[in-house]
Amino acid sequence: MKIRATTAEDRDAFVDTLFAAFARFPVSADETWSALELDRGLFATAEDGRPVGTAAAYSFELTLPGEIVVPASGVTAVGVLPTHRRRGALSAMMRRQFADFRARGEILSVLLASEALIYRRFGYGPATYTHRLTVQRHQAAFAVPRTASGSIELLRRADCGGLLEEVYDRYRRARPGALSRPHRWWAAGAGQPPVSEASRYIALHRDAEGVPDGYACYSHTAPSTLTVDETIAVDDVVSTALARFLLEHDLITQVVFNQCPPDHPLRWQLEDFRAAEVGGDTDWLWVRLLDIPRALTTRGWFADGELVLDVTDAALGEHGRHLLTVRNGEADCVPTDREPDLSLDVSDLGSIYLGGTAPSTLVRAGHIRAHRPSAVAVADALFRGERPPHCLHWF
Fold it and tell me: What Pfam families does the database record attribute to this sequence (predicted)?
């Protein structure tokens, strides 16, 4: 099995191979893959040179705790033809990707896992979570008073792509776990709404000075249902104003809010706590550390402490023991031969890295081994972020 890089001339063959791996047929009008960076794609090829597997990566930025933004490769379009599975093609492509990412100087990689069983063995761990909230309009009375919060303008998606791009970029830089949406995505209409140019209404919020600071992307879907693709807001006041706007829509019996973060306050804002029904609770962004010392010293920290982490990375055949010391928000991470406080897989380190999964949860689940009980409380305090991480970008 050979691995080679793809070029722009390979686009049709790449898409055809990818779709065949999932028993699907490409749709000519489908713009989902229009933002592919084919200079970062890979083919696994058979002996005669035919492509039998694909993998690609997007060039993103990821926001870490502390509002620190770092480059991150977003792994996507991974597939192997059913005629060539179980022959090492996937492993070979993943190893090549890791080498390429490290050559770019990146400290981590991310992906959305189509199957949870596949990617943990390559060192990725679920790091952000999302759910949907469904609210019946007759139960949508707010318990909190309405506050002045600027104005809302109703637009169509086709008329405001540039504004959405600006608002999203402002939002994602302040939200841990959020990914950038490069301009080429908006320009190509790639992915899913509102990045794509699919017909949608946009409720654009402006502050008192008229500066856009939030939006909700929505459409009328099932009978009497308003479905909200995503709500972007720079603060809770804007988020609440947009939620009120959507829940006051005429001739609608229910509103479905997709891609809600774990700390969404809507259930607590309604008079009837049960009015917002939670569903679709799932993992979203998976994180894989490629340079553990640099990753740990790059993110922001909000407590002081010291831990010795014994980390196994089977996918790369690596093992290291790291002394993490945090003082006054600054971290130092160096090799050590001290006895470990925690032993864990690199995938588990990816899960706790953004603060969305408590180390104690993984200790209780049997993933992380604590060598002294007090180390668990220290780890929980250290890895907790300023707020739960959340990612809603699809790629």
Answer: Acetyltransf_17, Acetyltransf_9, SCP2_2
Q: How confident is the model at residue 222 (pLDDT cuts 50, 70, 90)?
A: confident
CATH fold of 131-282, please? Answer: Aminopeptidase (3.40.630)
Geometric angle at alpha carbon 72, from 205 and 384, rounded to 5°: 75
Determine if residue 90 is labeled as part of a ligand binding site: yes
Calculate the CA 291 to chain-centre distance. 19
CATH architecture observed for domain 2-106 = 3-Layer(aba) Sandwich (3.40)
Res. 27: pLDDT tops 90: no
Instruction: Assign domain 292-383 to its CATH architecture.
Output: 2-Layer Sandwich (3.30)
Q: Is the pLDDT of residue 31 over 90?
A: no
Q: Pick the closest to residue 58 from 185, 218, 170, 155 (CA basis).
A: 185
**pLDDT at position 30 over 90:** no
Tokens linked to 24: 């699907």
pLDDT digits (tens, 9 = 90+) for 44-78: 999 999 999 999 999 999 999 999 999 999 999 99
194 prior amide bond cis, ω within 30: yes
What pLDDT does residue 32 have?
76
On whether 115 is known to bind a ligand per the annotation, the reply is yes
Q: Where in the chain is the domain with CATH 3.30.1050.10?
A: 292-383
Catalytic residue ranges: 119, 395
| 86 labeled binding residue | yes
Q: How far is CA 204 from CA 169, 217, 226, 388, in A?
A: 15, 9, 16, 25
User: What is the location of CATH 3.40.630.30 in the chain?
Assistant: 2-106, 131-282
78 annotated ligand binder: yes
Question: What is the rounded (10 degree) CA torsion for 65, 66, 71, 72?
Answer: 0
Lowest mean pLDDT among 107-121, 140-154, 224-238, 344-358: 140-154
Q: How many CB atoms lie within 10 A of CB 122?
A: 23
d(CA 179, CA 394): 9
pTM for the full predicted model = 0.96
Phi, psi of 321 (to 5 degrees): -115, 120
